[in-house]
Amino acid sequence: EAGVAQSPRYKIIEKRQSVAFWCNPISGHATLYWYQQILGQGPKLLIQFQNNGVVDDSQLPKDRFSAERLKGVDSTLKIQPAKLEDSAVYLCASTPRETQYFGPGTRLLVL
Amino acid sequence: GNSVTQMEGPVTLSEEAFLTINCTYTATGYPSLFWYVQYPGEGLQLLLKATKADDKGSNKGFEATYRKETTSFHLEKGSVQVSDSAVYFCALSARAAGNKLTFGGGTRVLVKP
After folding, report:
1. Which of the two ends of chain B, N or C, has the fewest CB atoms closer than 10 A to its terminal CB?
2. A10 to chain B: nearest residue by CA?
3. Rounded to an integer, what distance in angstroms lies between the CA atom of residue B10 and that of residue B19?
4. Rounded distance, CA B66 to CA B73, Å?
């Protein structure tokens, strides 16, 4: 069974630029999560989707972050404009029920 | 709200030593508890889990028991190997919170030959 796919794996941008990350969850997994993991810390939830609807986006900085999950499968997370403090690993996870399976993450460096 | 506290690292051990990583949690209701491992350059992998009090999760020689009375889920391994060098994260999920994971800060473990 294929795992959660994410791209790109690495991205370097300058502050105030925009960036987008893509996630393809495990086939059949209805629930998808995006987490932000700052260096030296545990991941923190940004947004949770159930199929193509948002369940929880209370921790998403909506002035600069946006996410969508069209057709209830793939998802994209966008940052516009990026700030220095957005440098982190962005993790996508999916689950059919409770146990979450994580992708390899996208490492973002904002200069 | 829900929270997870785990011991800070790094923890440096010799091969075949005994490993314990402490984890305590605060949650309403009856959360499920998890240990995830992150090897260098890789994503998070589920190591083990327990879904109710007194359950013991185990995998790859690692064990952790869900202790509701002490709100703890300590990770143990009797004899570590160099390949166990990684960052270990304790986490909980609660159905009332949409099953989102709340993570501890992670504990880096370095096993020396």
Report:
1. C
2. B41
3. 12
4. 5
User: Is A103 in contact with A4 (CB distance < 8 Å)?
Assistant: yes
Rounded to the nearest angstrom, the minimum Cα separation between B106 and chain A is 6
Q: How remote is the C-alpha of A89 from its chain's centroid?
A: 9
Burial of B95 per CB tally in 10 Å (0-12, 13-18, 19+): exposed
Q: List the structure tokens of B18.
A: 């005994």
| CB environment B22-53: b (16+ within 10 A), e (fewer) | ebbbebeeebbbbbbbbeeeebbebbbbbeee
Query: How confident is the model at residue B52, as a pLDDT?
Result: 93
Q: Is the pLDDT of residue A1 over 70?
A: no
End-to-end CA distance of chain A: 37
E strand or H helix at A32? strand A31-37
What pLDDT digit, counting tens, does each position of B21-46 carry? 999 999 988 899 999 999 988 889 99
Give the type of residue at A19.
Answer: V
> Where do we find the tokens 């090897």?
B39
Distances (CA, A) of B70 to A80, B23, B52, B66: 44, 10, 14, 9
User: Which residues have CB under 8 Å from A62's CB, separation 6+?
Assistant: none
Question: Across the interface, which of B36, B43, B93 has its CB nearest the CB of A98?
Answer: B93
Peptide bond just before A8 cis, omega within 30 deg? yes
CA distance B113 to A22: 39
CA-based nearest distance A16→chain B, Å? 27
